[in-house]
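Contributing new records

If you add data, match the layout below exactly. Sequence lines come first and carry their own label; structure lines follow with theirs. Keep one chain per record. Anything else will be rejected by the validation script.
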Amino acid sequence: VADAGLRVVLANPQAARLLGPAHAELAGAALPALLGPIAPATVAPWQTLVERVPLSFEARAPTGFELLVNIVPFEGDAGVRRGLLVSMVDVTALKQAANLREETLRFVSH
């Protein structure tokens, strides 16, 4: 969870595991510093992210995990956006299975 200033205010250990040991302590970290290196260029500029979400993208973390990243806003009283909820799903096994399937199909078709 990130506030309107794009600072992480709440994170679980799984998020740190997916992003790697350099991000063991996520609370207080700047969201652009965490996700910028893995996000596609279409996500930037980060300053306007709060107005442009929800969005989803696939990324490869430095740890090698294939991630599906979802970012959705949350609002406070009076409908004012207060921050972002970021979820990262490890889709590594799914990607590996899809790649294996494609390889098998290519092999069988020749």
